[in-house]
Design brief:
By secondary structure, this protein is α/β, with parallel strands linked by helices. The protein has 10 helices and 5 strands. The relative contact order is 0.16.
């Protein structure tokens, strides 16, 4: 894991998996609970791909901004990294565009390895899509993980002095599902914590899911375990947008202290599962 003595400054390049429930704000809350300074900025239009980001002037400006970034977090559209044909364009822009750009920035690159959709791939409307490639959560997670490892292999030669890190958020989601099954609970039951990691569209994260992601990122960015941190997220401005999407009667589930403790422990386990998650 990477750390800095003075501050952590993070540029996020991704999409709705970052702005849903204000992931950077939740990460900042975890850092604030340890009285550690972190600065963040983002370019995260909904549904965006790495290929789309490569031609976005806002991304170019973000990478040139100050303070000097200590980390750049990158995330592709959730349906692309595990699809060998679809990710050809992403691999090309990583090699031809982002690799040289990240070399100039000099920051540690962190790839946001995302989760499988709750019960197999769905489209933007939440209905089944591309099930020939992603028939289940497990298959989608396995393929996405392999895709992000491929992205890391492409980028590593461009930043030879720093290891490209992978934030295993998808692996953390997978551990929650395994825990539910081990306890004899149906992970697709509405009361299951795994089920509740998602909002009703079956692929975006709920506030609980985003908190799990934040705990994983805290570990990657700080080099420390998230276990025992006091920060628990509350309401955010994004709630209003979600209510418009899912209906005025919909309410986000708050993160309880017991759930927060459990998710911190899950993030800790996910961070220790494979050597490529740490520097």
């Amino acid at each position: 894991m990477a750390s800095t003595d003075d501050y952590t400054a993070v540029a996020f390049i991704g999409n709705s998996y970052i702005y849903f429930n204000e992931l950077p704000t939740q990460i900042q809350g975890l850092f604030d609970s340890t009285q550690t300074v972190i600065k963040t900025a983002q370019v995260t239009p909904g549904g965006q791909t790495l290929s789309g980001h490569s031609s976005d002037d806002k991304v170019a400006a973000l990478l040139c901004n100050s303070p000097p970034w200590t980390h750049v977090i990158m995330q592709d559209n959730s349906r692309i990294p595990g699809d060998e044909a679809a990710r050809v364009a992403s691999e090309a822009v990583l090699h031809e565009h982002f690799g040289p750009a990240l070399n100039r920035v000099g920051a540690t690159v962190v790839l946001y390895s995302t989760w499988g959709h709750r019960d197999g791939c769905v489209g933007m409307d939440g209905t089944p899509s591309r099930r020939d490639i992603y028939p289940s959560f497990e298959v989608m997670l396995e393929k996405l993980t392999a895709g992000y490892l491929r992205y890391a292999e492409i980028l590593q030669p461009f930043v030879p002095d720093k290891k490209v890190l992978i934030a295993p958020v998808g692996q953390a989601f997978g551990l929650v599902k395994l825990d539910e099954c081990a306890a004899g609970r149906d992970p697709l039951n509405h009361q299951s914590l795994f089920y509740r990691l998602y909002v009703p569209d079956n692929f975006h994260p709920s506030r609980i899911g985003t908190y799990l992601a934040a705990c994983v990122f805290y570990g990657v960015l700080s080099g420390k375990s998230p276990v025992g941190l006091s920060y628990i997220p509350r309401g955010c401005a994004h709630d209003t947008r979600l209510q418009k999407k899912f209906g005025e009667d919909w309410r986000p589930e708050e993160v309880s202290p017991s759930t927060a403790s459990y998710l911190q422990e899950v993030a800790h386990r996910a961070l220790g599962t494979q050597p490529w998650y740490a520097a």
